[in-house]
């Protein structure tokens, strides 16, 4: 069976807690590691050093560092990489181009999707030698609104590129908003480019808001955060897909439905571990002949 390790993303936590407090919280919650968010390029080196020291001293691992800039801006990527490589960071999340979050943003987007996809591909190609120079794997998050909103987009962008150099963060909840395919299909499409997984959940609720254009009134939907066990995403299915694909690695809790972070993180990690145990490792007989 694949071995999973459980981590916590700090982007939300840093608004309320110090680095030392976050490390202590993660230890108490039973986490194995931390996915650290850096504030800015100017402070990245000092932040990464503090994060590395405190995380290691607590017996936890640093999964990677977040919030580097646009992936095709190679001069900036080099500066981010220097900060992360100084503490032997293994992964750095970089940003693909933004396309459109909703219809309103689509109305004001001049750039062609295919042109932006090409820009992403060219940027990733340029990151491969940078990865080998600094020993860092550059990862993009599957996220609604940007060019990498689906496993299909990742497959197109990263086809033929070394998965040790570039990869993707699979975020099932994000694909519920855009780019969804069944988790088993998602893991197949990502293949060796699957770096790790973000764990969060959400609800969709009908909104009273309507788009600011001269069209008939029509239903609009809003996403709201949910506890891991309560939203649209079934994490037993996620772990089935991960096991079936042979994935072994990090599951990182990213967003939270309450302000009680210590309790939600501890309960969330316990829930994820239960789902990992409950999930089958392979397809089961009798097989249904869907395609005969």
Strand order within the widest beta sheet = 3-2-1-10-7-6-5-4
In the CATH scheme, the class would be: Alpha Beta
Residue share in helices? 25-40%
Ranges with pLDDT <50 over ≥5 residues?
Answer: none
Q: Write the CATH homologous superfamily.
A: Divalent-metal-dependent TIM barrel enzymes
> First CA to last CA: what distance?
31 Å
Number of helices: 10
Mean pLDDT: 95
β-sheet strand percentage: 15-25%
* Helix/sheet category: alpha/beta
Features of the shown structure:
292 residues; alpha/beta; TIM Barrel; eight-stranded parallel sheet; 10 helices; 10 strands; 19% strand; globular
Describe it for me?
- The protein has 292 residues and is an alpha/beta fold.
- The chain has a single domain, classed as TIM Barrel (Alpha-Beta Barrel), CATH 3.20.20.150.
- Helices cover 39% and strands 19% of the residues.
- The chain contains 10 helices and 10 strands.
- The strands form 2 sheets. An 8-stranded parallel sheet has the order 3-2-1-10-7-6-5-4. A two-stranded antiparallel ribbon has the order 8-9.
- α6 packs parallel to α8 and α8 packs parallel to α9.
- The model has no long low-confidence stretch (mean pLDDT 95).
């Amino acid at each position: 069976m694949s071995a999973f390790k459980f981590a916590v993303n700090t982007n939300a936590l840093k608004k309320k807690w110090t680095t030392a407090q976050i490390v202590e919280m993660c230890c108490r919650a039973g986490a194995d590691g931390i996915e650290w968010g850096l504030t800015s390029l100017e402070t990245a080196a000092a932040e990464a050093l503090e994060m590395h020291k405190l995380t290691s001293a607590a017996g936890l691992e640093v999964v990677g560092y977040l919030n580097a800039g646009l992936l095709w801006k190679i001069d900036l990527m080099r500066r981010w990489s220097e900060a992360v490589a100084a503490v032997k960071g293994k992964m750095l999340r970089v940003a693909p181009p933004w396309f459109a979050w909703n219809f309103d943003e689509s109305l004001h987007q001049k750039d062609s999707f295919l042109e932006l996809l090409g820009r992403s591909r060219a940027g990733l190609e340029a990151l491969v030698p940078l990865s080998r120079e600094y020993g860092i794997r550059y990862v993009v998050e599957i996220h609604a609104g940007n060019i990498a909103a689906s496993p299909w987009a990742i497959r197109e962008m990263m086809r033929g590129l070394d998965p040790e150099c570039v990869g993707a963060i699979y975020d099932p909840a994000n694909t519920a908003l855009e780019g969804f395919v069944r988790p088993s299909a998602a893991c197949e499409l990502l293949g060796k480019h699957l770096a790790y997984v973000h764990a969060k959940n959400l609800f969709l609720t009908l909104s009273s808001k309507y788009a600011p254009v001269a069209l008939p009134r029509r239903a609009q939907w809003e996403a709201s955060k949910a506890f891991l066990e309560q939203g649209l995403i079934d994490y037993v299915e996620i772990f089935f897909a991960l096991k079936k694909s042979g994935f072994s690695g990090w599951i990182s809790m990213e967003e939270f439905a309450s302000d009680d972070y210590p309790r939600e993180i501890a309960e969330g990690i316990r829930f994820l571990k239960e789902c990992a145990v409950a999930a089958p490792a392979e397809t089961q007989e009798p097989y249904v002949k869907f395609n005969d």
